[in-house]
Amino acid sequence: MATEGGAFVAWDDRAEVDATLRALLVDVLGISAERAAAFDEETELFGALPEFDSMAVATLLTEMEERLGILIEDEDVEAEDLMSFGRLLALAQRLSLT
Q1: CA–CA distance, 84 with 29 (Å, rounded to integer)
Q2: Residue 77 carries which DSSP code?
């Protein structure tokens, strides 16, 4: 969902969610846009990128809520969702797309 005139509207574009998630990773992890653009479904994140530590996870989830206009409940996220870009993207799409 995104905000439009103060109201939440559902996102309907997977590419937009993908681009937003990549921009978030650039901002939160401090990596280059080129590096984030090269991520594919199998790119490992948590445990593989030194920048993606527990503090970065908390910041990323908070920023996902803000930029995607979603609410992430504890039960929405599993550790596996943070292990690869594909799993993280699937989580973002599941929560933000109708």
Answers
A1: 14
A2: -
